């Protein structure tokens, strides 16, 4: 006779039944339920079912018997370990629930020591517990808590969602959690570890865990408020793009504003900005994106942008305020270069940028304010900033209406012993800047400080003529004399010098003594002398075997302006 038939018999006087560890499944629980329920004369008051598997409905059916006032059953043992029993009692007392009848348990803000965590994990591992969602936000969990939870994930249990946010897990905690995530029995679908002090190593552990587990069920991951380091975001995106991986939703950004900015830039740039170090928003790629949203994105720890280019974007004072706020309010900002070319900051914007430069917490070392409508007054404020021990090493103020008076004001700051600035750019064009950089290295002095440009002994090098011309044509160049003594001038170098003569510069004298010129080189130079824009008054060169034809081409200029050796 079956046990259920015995229990259902009205003549049965059984008070206690122990069928623990008897491999009973859901159908067996249904039979026990039916037998006791169908027998109004049942004397069963105690039932031990520990170590069996009730399936989805078994526990619920047994509890219905206990709650039935017609039924004498009042004691049921379901949990195998005393530790699990303690967890059951704690949850019942703390939350006022029966955890064996719950699909979700929320213990947020309840501080749990290691002993309590171990008890809860033992409860979760019992087959009579079917909690699907466990929320442990801000519970004081630690690295050791992760070991216990990893053992839960390694079991073939019902937990599908685990929220461990706002706990100090660190990379070491995630590494311990990794053993559970990479286990083929892990059924977890959603994991939230936001604000858990996780760094780059923690992201690597999560990547390895999911990548190495072909059976991983993880579809959603919340990493907000952590620091991915240089590679973290890239690794997680590789998981999303892997067609073998089920992960399809990852949350990195802390605020809705940052998410909206990220979505906007994804469409504008056709790439996720979290994967970029250089954010180029030139020519209005910024669109109608709200400045505060951009700030929120840049302030997020998952943004690793080191350079922002927002040239020609019509950014006004409000835009400058937002950029200032984004950089200033984020002490962990990686931003080292800010390119604001072609945007008029207004008086307020200028002050904000200068305050940013002066902030010792700011890591900016390059600021470009080319063509930003800066004036003499802008230089007054900047002079005091330069006198401070600032991090900025390069400042581009070219193509602004600074005038001599503005530059003179800057001089005060530049002469200060605390000034750390290494490059201050005034020149109009990139070609002029390149020429200036080339000559700075060749001469070991800034050519803008010179009236006499001595490029003797082949210091001209391979500098392009158009770039040299751009430099000498710039209003900041005061060069009136070029000396190229003892140079082996090539035809290309002569072309470069000819290009200089063809432009309106301040150059009045060119000395090519002891520098042999080929016929073609001499002709390049002499052809420019008749042009009206050529300001040259003195050209000195030695005759080193030039043909009569070459010399004749210059003969019409052989007056006080030109001498030959």
Biggest beta-sheet profile = 6 strands, parallel
Termini gap: 131 Å
At the fold tier of CATH, the topology name of the largest domain is Leucine-rich repeat, LRR (right-handed beta-alpha superhelix)
What is the level-2 CATH architecture name of the largest domain?
Alpha-Beta Horseshoe
Work out the helicity level: 25-40%
Number of domains: 4
CATH superfamily of the largest domain: Ribonuclease Inhibitor
Mean pLDDT: 85
Description:
With 565 residues, the chain is α/β, with parallel strands linked by helices. It has four domains: 75 residues, Alpha-Beta Horseshoe (Leucine-rich repeat, LRR (right-handed beta-alpha superhelix)); 170 residues, Ribonuclease Inhibitor (Leucine-rich repeat, LRR (right-handed beta-alpha superhelix)); 171 residues, Ribonuclease Inhibitor (Leucine-rich repeat, LRR (right-handed beta-alpha superhelix), Alpha-Beta Horseshoe), CATH 3.80.10; 134 residues, Leucine-rich repeat, LRR (right-handed beta-alpha superhelix), CATH 3.80.10.10. β4, α5 and β5 form a beta-alpha-beta unit. The longest helix is centred in the N-terminal third of the chain and has 14 residues. It is rod-shaped and about 135 Å long. The termini are far apart.
